[in-house]
Amino acid sequence: MTTAALPVTEAFFTDPYPLYRKLRDEAPVCRVELPDGAPAWLVTRYAEVRALLADPRLSVDKSNGNGSWRGFSLPPALDANLLNMDPPNHTRIRKLVSQAFTPRRVADLRPRIQSTADALLDALAGHSEADLVRDYAGPLPVAVISDLLGVPEADRHEFRSWTDTMFSPPPDDRAAAGRAVRTIHAYLEGLLAAKRAQPADDLLSALIAARDDDDRLTEDELTSLAFLLLFAGYENTVHAIGTALLTLLRRPGLATGPEHLGATIEELLRYEPPAPVLLRRFPTEDVEIAGVTVPRGETVLMVVGAANRDPDAFAEPDEVRPGRSGSHLTFGHGIHYCLAAPLARLELEVAIGTAVRRFPRLRLAVPADELGWRPSYRTRGLVALPVLLD
Ligand code: HEM
User: What's the number of domains the chain is made of?
Assistant: First the structure.
């Protein structure tokens, strides 16, 4: 069997879409070698990706893998999270936490998200230039998820730098990722102990009560859930805001007025998903995908970045057309569908709407082809977004 290596070139990180197109057209179920040397199957067409995300034969539980997946190694106290669980444990924990993210609960967060966005942009007033990733797209989601969970203000900056190191350790110090994980673990244990001693009106205190009073989750599950909410609440949203702003700056004609903003954001989410490759899945039996048999236990990666641009699902998919029909897969599909999609949409709406209102002459400070992208096939995010403000 031929196994092509997934490229780790700057050209691929800058623009992965030509490769996605080639895979979709020529090898929609393709065995590749990942940058860490592990083998995996990439699935790139919309129909298969969507069907597989709802297929119970694909498990996210690593014990169903054949051991070839290397991935990220976490201690048990962080690993017992929703993204590694199948039903029934997944169902139990998801139910517990999903009440915090209903559309009504999320709508209540709007004023606080708005005031955070305003304060971040106030801090830029009078400056002629800014890096909107560092100064805006980064701090906003950290503040939002920290407010929700009850992470004290003083700890937020550090949390961001640990998360960045965990996901993108410096190339000359890969061990930094492991150190960052240990630091986050120790931090979360301290935070949970503090909340236990002094409960407050926040989500972490509510989850602690669900553990201690009702015994509805184990201690490892509690710490893992806090970990997942913190990093899931941050990582994807930062990149989504950054790339959405870039697409808007490159297409100044896109409508961003209040009545059009929702549709524009939905289309930007389709166009540039911040997590173009979803979580690894392991078939619990041999499965046939578009005529190809994928053996049990091998790694399957759903490439939503490719599926979202499948011309069989979206006409002229490389065009940005707010209001088009069809539903993108940026938030996943099936039982692991993003728990906080309403919150993510609200954050994007406030972030983008406020930035363009506040700085109507916002434009790129460097040519778009000089922008740096995260060197990861799983993350679509800008390293920095230098802009001129006035
Ligand atoms: C634009 C921003 C976001 C995007 C694109 C996004 C995308 C996703 C995707 C694709 C999944 C499913 C992964 C898979 O099936 O492999 C997911 C799951 C999840 N997301 Fe988000 N997410 C975003 C923001 C957030 C925020 C703000 C939170 C807040 C806490 C969050 C919490 C979660 C959680 C807890 C899960 C796990 C759900 C489960 O396994 O049942 N996400 N997200």
Answer: 1
